[in-house]
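From the pipeline queue, job 12 of 40. The input is one protein chain; the requested action is below.

Action: predict structure.
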Amino acid sequence: MAFLSSKKDREIQVQLFKDYNTNLIRYPKWQKMLKENQPKTLITWGKKDLKFNANGAKAYLKDLPNAELHLLDAGHFAAEEKTREVAKLILEFLSKSEIE
């Protein structure tokens, strides 16, 4: 709701929704890049997300078999619902991946 508090915020969100098809068109290009580069990847996902269900998170593992996936007891806004848990996962991932 914070992103809908002003008229300008609502207009921005509508533009994002209208442009979503652009993301879909680019999926093959992004998937190719992930397969080729195999970046170290942490995926945190709300397993109760009704818009982007857990299968969407698991699909990343096809291109990134070494990715670390955590399905959290949360919905679409998992980072906001499970802030401490996500922060802990990020810090642990950065540490073991030797990312500074």
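Job complete. The first helix runs from residue 7 to 18.
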